[in-house]
Fold this sequence. Notes:
Blueprint: H1 3-10, E1 22-26, E2 29-33, H2 37-47, E3 57-60, H3 70-86, E4 89-91, H4 98-104, E5 113-116, E6 130-133, H5 136-145, E7 147-151, E8 155-161, H6 170-181, E9 190-194, H7 196-200, H8 203-211, E10 220-222, H9 227-237, E11 254-259, E12 266-268, E13 276-278, E14 289-292, H10 294-297, H11 300-310, E15 320-323, H12 328-336, H13 339-346, E16 349-350, E17 371-374, E18 388-391, H14 394-403, H15 421-431, E19 443-450, H16 458-461, H17 489-492, E20 498-500, H18 513-521, E21 525-528, H19 533-541, E22 546-548, E23 562-566, E24 571-574, E25 579-582, H20 588-595
Parallel strand pairs: 2-3, 2-5, 3-4, 5-6, 8-9, 8-11, 9-10, 14-15, 14-17, 15-16, 17-18, 19-20, 20-21, 21-22
Antiparallel strand pairs: 1-7, 12-13, 19-23, 23-24, 24-25
Helix pairs in contact: 2-5, 6-8, 11-13, 11-14
Amino acid sequence: MTIIEKIIANHSKFDTVKPGDIVDIDIDVRAARDFGGPNVVKHFKEYNLTINDVSKTFFTFDTNPTGSDQKYAVNQQICRQFAREHGIKVFDINNGIGTHTFIEKGLAYPGTTSLTTDSHANILGAVGAFGQGMGDKDMAVAFSKGRVWFKVPKSVKINFTGKRPDDISSKDIVLNLLHKFGANSLLGYSVEMYGKEVDKLTLDERITIASMGTEMGAIIILFPPNKEIMDYCSERAEKKIEGVYADEDAQYDKVFDIDISTFKSMISLPGKPHDTVNIIETKKVKIDSGFIGSCTNGRIEDMREAAKILKGRKIAPGVVLKIVPSTDEIWQQCLDEGIMKTFKEAGALVSNAGCAGCAAGQVGQNGPGEITVSTGNRNFPGKQGKGSVYLASPATVAASSLAGYITTFDRIPEKPEVFTPQETEEKIKTSETHKDIEQKPLIVEGRVWYIPMDDIDTDMIFHNRYLAITDINEMGQYAFDNLEGYEDFAKKAKPGDIVLVHKNFGAGSSRQQAVDCFKALGIQAIIAESYGAIYERNAINAAFPIVTYKTLEGLDLEDGDTLRVDFETGKIENISKNTSIQAEPFSEVQKEIYQNGGLF
């Protein structure tokens, strides 16, 4: 078996599992965040659930650790009160990012399983653990039952050959991988990393790479733990840890040999994390702000790298640099090592540990027309604000903040670039329902919204500025309001409509609202070539019909046609054109949950 297969088998009633098997797996760490947590509490009250094991159950307040938003503050207090009643441990707003905390506190280590409402829970693959982000329904079940159902994914093996260039950071490594694989080539796969250069990667570097597995569509990127990782995890867990490794005869769906010596310093262009180019192509692009932090690059090695470049220098006039360590332990380490002093003397703004701008709940947001270079893992439109976001390494962000434009640490000018009044003026000009559960038919018919796009992410579906909304009745009005060309979708959509899109629909975060907004509007089904892994689970668990097709060839589809969809057989008929195609029928699990009216 592969690593993922062994971990799942070890947490199930089966000795062995294979790709495609659907099994119940025990969850060692179950955590809800301030985003998603209130809905978990709501499910507990609505369905009279009980906690399975309080010692394995947690809340983490990391999306808005400043409590600066009133709705987040209310939601955090709802979770606190519930935690007090049930004796649940809360990692509160002074703690930092939950997934990092689980590693620090020895809760997640090689071979364990963790479930959170964080779509980057697969970060735990950095230590050879299984981490998965899921929606609030799954999380309520995990809190109550201690286990969830999961489909065993196929595995991919990536072998790094050659020698890693000295100037290539871990962020550069993952951006090069995104350049090769894009957003959906590894969709739904568990990825294992091997090679001499992989063995040398530090914990912080592994976290950076594992974090952006989500942006590649992967279930998880797993690193076989080396001695350094094993020693660290054993010390944190205060017990001897044994790693989980793939068998020599493990079966992989695909194997890739990649020469790391060919990797270049990369940057993601605004809009899509996988739209990566050699950083040379973006040099001299003037910036308004920089951000160093997030679950991808908020580690102590990232802070040290930034401090080394900023020491004795000043941030360019008109540029704001925001820095947020990932955990309070790292924040304190920065203080002890004098890194905080370096940041402040350079003119940076430092905030308490957390997700920061990546989650729209803390410093790091930008405004219309603002150009930001960021170490985050996502730059979807609107994700970090209304401006444009480039993704890069901490060294690039620090160097660019000093230069006033995008550059590398070895090409920082003596004098920074500044915006002229005319440029500034031009930038300003250009910037400027919850319903009762009811049984639904296995055959539906309705007008189709044909949106021929790949990679429609959850920020495009339901923007993160609305994440504090928990009432399904309020969600429909915001569906697709961040998808260019479809901002008025909610006003024009009618109950009974069907939405048909291309690949990787629902990529991005774990937000349940990206499913529920369509339910609120009365949309009958989503049809896509493929889905983001978390979105697929959330839709199935919410009894919202999603159908997967292999090709649209022969359907002769136009926007506004009338479709008939048979969930049981998978047949899709275009009634307007008298054509049809064969899609995938509901699986047994999907049909059972659908007919049950939801996971509960």
